[in-house]
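New to this. Help decode the following:
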Amino acid sequence: MVEDVAAAIGPDRSLLILDDDEAFRRRLARAMEKRGFEPVMAESVAEGLRIVESAPPAFAVVDLRLEDGNGLDVVEALRAGRDTARIVVLTGYGAIATAVAAVKVGATDYLSKPADADDVTAALLAQKAVKPPPPENPMSADRVRWEHIQRVFELCDRNVSETARRLNMHRRTLQRILAKRSPK
């Protein structure tokens, strides 16, 4: 399979990985390198823009929300610098409005986190007319709900009352959910 991926990539194997989660960024870079890409990593919009301006890559994986701004700024700059670039936007905040915005500014595809290297590779190399196959192991609805609650909880600085208010949920119900292990 790795040989097939390497052949599909083409001669320019440059890949920008823009994500502020260092562990995820490094893990994805190692996995993509094994698949034949030549990854360059960045953790901020400013750093991503510098890379795009100096040498626009053929491929990019861009996180939507970064500490210093919005990853869509980098998508727009890359699309302007290299209109053939294949760009996948990753986000932990999956919503139809953000997916539409990402595609409008030039993203090739849009994936919700957690996405693995196989998902990212398939999205980067997919032909425009071909729909990607459904995931082999999709998350259960319970797991998706749990991930969303955990994300909001972290965004609220682990404040149970604030999280419950934002999720329109009773505080005690939220506490019970947070006390349980994550569903499979």
